[in-house]
Amino acid sequence: MKFSFANPTAIHFGQGQISAIATAIPTDAKVLVVYGGGSIKKNGVYDQVVTSLANHQWEEFSGVEPNPTKETLDKAVAIVKERGIDFLLAVGGGSVIDGTKYIAAAAHYDGDGWDIMTGSHQVQSAVKLGAILTLPATGSESNSGAVVTRLATQDKLAFLSPHVYPQFAVLDPDSMKTLPERQLKNGLVDAWVHICEQYLTLPTGAMVQDGYAEALLKNLLILGADYDNNDDDAWRANLMWSANQALNGLIGTGVPQDWATHMIGHEITALYGVDHARSLAIVQPSLLRNQIDYKKAKLEQMGRNVFGIDGDDVATRTIDAIEAFYQSLGVATQLQDYGTTKENAIDAVVGQLQGHGFTKLGENQSIDLDVTRAILEKAVA
Ligand code: NZQ
Ligand code: ZN
């Protein structure tokens, strides 16, 4: 274990905290409020933003899609450059926050913003940003990552930069009240898989990271089992805080990380439009079964400490329990309705991974294209 850790995002958590933006954003800033398809106008979040920005100079950019596209975001980049915007406020889910991170970085770059996604441009600086989260799932509100899609080529790529950590994140669980069931369940699954990506690798004896990861996994299991009570302040608050902690960097410091499920899942979303979380539920059980030899010790630890499984075949039964957790939420664990033959669907995913150079995935680089193909054989119905 050797690491440096800093998470610079200030968190304003709790009911009524949207008003904190009045002082969290400098009053002399020129602000662009960035949001999605309009959910924030139906749950009072937009109105609270307007009230809280009464002493600020601000304008807005709407229409950021789920799985945000370069094509849309570049329009905001042009506005930021033209108008001298120097603070971005993202209001929405992971897509809006990721999109805002791209806008922030691309606005400080003279070339095509896509260069940031391919890695041919390393981000040197970015417009300052803050986030108001309305959908707990991705952790984007206080991490340094963003995922953006180029529609024209169906490429979905991620970038990481310390320059795009939000300055602050507002987490008001009341903003979740209008979330459709599908998105609440997506949040549970995405946060769950984020913890797995940083925990289900190989044992390193990192007691803090393992112990906290297990606590968060247990929270998500309890919230899933108690799903019928999701219209409850404590339920919402616990999901919002758990999903944030799952991917704010802490549990991943100093330990091996996997992320193969995410890389394969991103291609499935780009090709077939499957929600991000649902792409993970499709890939992960099959991937874990394929990689069970490498992951056996951590699967057994998770089985014992999270699910309370003992006896024989703990690793196998733990994977079964993970799959059953998704299914208990009504989340499918195989890809269906992909509009072509199974063989074509698998070829397409493998072809995209190859094109992006993602040919050795996982904590020990053991998932090459042949292994991916074997994983997809089970993951595609
Ligand atoms: O656009 P609006 O109208 O706001 O509607 C959104 C959208 O249709 C809606 N929604 C959000 N908050 C709502 C609400 N509807 C009603 N009430 C509310 N309070 O939900 C829909 C989905 O939103 P989206 O932001 O796309 O969902 P999510 O937060 O799951 O974000 C998914 C994106 O994040 C990326 C994914 O790849 C995907 O592109 N990820 C980002 C990560 C990161 N930055 O660290 C890590 C993740 O693994 C993930 O890859
Ligand atoms: Zn995710």
UniProtKB/TrEMBL annotation:
<keyword id="KW-0560">Oxidoreductase</keyword>
<dbReference type="Pfam" id="PF25137">
    <property type="entry name" value="ADH_Fe_C"/>
</dbReference>
<dbReference type="InterPro" id="IPR044731">
    <property type="entry name" value="BDH-like"/>
</dbReference>
<protein>
    <submittedName>
        <fullName>Iron-containing alcohol dehydrogenase</fullName>
    </submittedName>
</protein>
<feature type="domain" description="Alcohol dehydrogenase iron-type/glycerol dehydrogenase GldA">
    <location>
        <begin position="8"/>
        <end position="173"/>
    </location>
</feature>
<dbReference type="InterPro" id="IPR056798">
    <property type="entry name" value="ADH_Fe_C"/>
</dbReference>
<dbReference type="InterPro" id="IPR001670">
    <property type="entry name" value="ADH_Fe/GldA"/>
</dbReference>
<feature type="domain" description="Fe-containing alcohol dehydrogenase-like C-terminal">
    <location>
        <begin position="188"/>
        <end position="345"/>
    </location>
</feature>
<dbReference type="Pfam" id="PF00465">
    <property type="entry name" value="Fe-ADH"/>
</dbReference>
